[in-house]
Write a structure and sequence with these properties.
The protein is an alpha+beta fold and 89 residues long. The protein contains 2 helices and 3 strands.
């Protein structure tokens, strides 16, 4: 993970793009998109993620979001990626 663009504050919203390895089209099926949405909902409720908008493309996800309630966005995104990498195969 790059440290140059790591989100470490809780006051700012960030535009984040999360890509698949090699930009492989894996978000083609509805159930894969539903898993992403379920994990985003979990992060909203349990990890203080405030989402202003998102777009799930075939090989990547765009998010406009920020962390609240003392959570750090980079830690929330780390957990999001860790969890979804095991669910979508």
């Amino acid at each position: 993970m790059s440290t140059k663009y790591k989100a470490t504050t809780t006051e700012d919203a960030y535009f984040i793009t999360i890509t698949t390895v090699g930009w492989v089209d894996i978000f083609n099926r509805l159930n894969q998109k539903q898993i992403i949405i379920q994990v985003l909902n979990y992060c909203q409720v349990q990890k203080g993620l405030e989402i202003y908008g998102y777009c799930i493309m075939h090989s990547h996800i765009h998010l406009l979001c920020k962390a609240t309630n003392g959570f750090i966005l980079s830690a929330v995104m780390r957990d999001f990626k860790k969890h979804t990498s095991k669910k979508i195969i």
